Amino acid sequence: MSLSTNKDLPIGVFDSGIGGLTVLRALQHALPHENFLYLGDTARLPYGTKSPQTVKDYALNANEILVATGVKALVVACNTATAVALDALQEKFQPLPVLGVIAPGAIASLEIASEGPIVVLATESTAKWHAYRDILSSLAPERTVIEWPCQLLVALAEEGWCEGPLVEEIISKLLSPLFAYLGNTKPACILLGCTHFPVLKSAMQHVVGTIPVIDPAHTLAAQVITLLSSQNLLRAGTKQETQFMATDGIERFARVAQTFLGYAISSEDVELVTVIPKITTAKKANTA
Amino acid sequence: MSLSTNKDLPIGVFDSGIGGLTVLRALQHALPHENFLYLGDTARLPYGTKSPQTVKDYALNANEILVATGVKALVVACNTATAVALDALQEKFQPLPVLGVIAPGAIASLEIASEGPIVVLATESTAKWHAYRDILSSLAPERTVIEWPCQLLVALAEEGWCEGPLVEEIISKLLSPLFAYLGNTKPACILLGCTHFPVLKSAMQHVVGTIPVIDPAHTLAAQVITLLSSQNLLRAGTKQETQFMATDGIERFARVAQTFLGYAISSEDVELVTVIPKITTAKKANTA
Fold first, then answer.
1. What ipTM, to 2 d.p.?
2. Which among B155, B248, B287 has CB closest to A152?
């Protein structure tokens, strides 16, 4: 298949919005000679509060843009989309390699400590759909997994409030029912199960003391290297280029990006791509 | 037109999600004999970070459900949708009366004090599109209007963090650049230009001291009474009924609703209605 055998094609990185830029940042660092094509489906964010079928439809639709543009691998840098759409994306775009963020996070959490409950901080939907619990129960059925919703941290990260006493106080209040629930049990780790959360990692580490805080993006980057090298698809010795695409609001995308990406981009660096919803209306029942 | 001459039809209340329930609450209180039909377009929330054309498309599409079900008036309980889609909604559904939340807020702010800058707290998009500044500049061109984005307050309200020292500290931090900008000038009022914010009104009042904090929903309710009574469409002496519809995630809708509505509802009280995006993909330019 031509799609997956061209070394010079970029790696596609998909997210519902801008949180996936923390994953892109880790990939850019770990793969300095690769090109990247990032797509944020900002017209339909956030995926985290929508139903599984809706998220699946949106993810399948949006990733068509990346695949049509041409990528040698696809990274789903969105926990919600990974949780409900990874299988469907792999099936639709085979033999293109499609990697999600959940398995790397689960693997990283098992590597950090051999016992103690694994705490996953996530959006409401990732927590509710038990994506981390499901994969961890297959990898290590004896381990306890606690999926803790922290939706407010998404807004905090987008506001650019990443550190300082007030941020730590907010994190502390969000986690206090968790630690009350845990009692004297110390968790093995705190896994950042939402791509927005790594920008709060330092503040969170202050709050939780010696409990390791894990960003799955680093393990994911290692998986991408393994995968590409096994297929002789790694580029070498060339300068890295990254292109950004968003389905709406490129000015906001560019403005908020710096927090997550670690460097500034302008709206001119972001291409607006359109997913046109040709909408028909269907009511399930008549309430008149 | 049959649509607008039936007293027993409900008043339609439209929002992108659940924030509009604060408007519904004010309407329920002010119009105890009217029925209401609320629709939250939760499949596509938030409107506040999307482009004007996208918001307009979504609002026109979603309101078809309310109009098709049958309403005697339409209240757009969403600042973003009011800002960019009110004209289009009025045109599309004429002669059905369609009221938005922005004009009532502007009127209320002018009634509270005859001088001093009017501060509007809003989502990023409402602030950016200058909907309040535009209407206030036509009603009172001499007044200064400051539209201040407070996106984080939306997440705070949805988390149910409505009061207490930490909430006040967060509000205080969000407003501190505003008060630094104002210097010694005292604002005439603080207008809550997002329907999520009224649940934080008490905490905000603590933070801003003697500056009046205005919830536009009360003025809006008075406008609805005037409108219906002028057309002899007010119901009398019958029990109020309210129906809830959402385009996605009815469990979450029901769970978060209590904060905004003031009473609990269950997911069985919320009807799932579907806006099906038949999506086609169009790229604006080739980036391969």
1. 0.82
2. B155
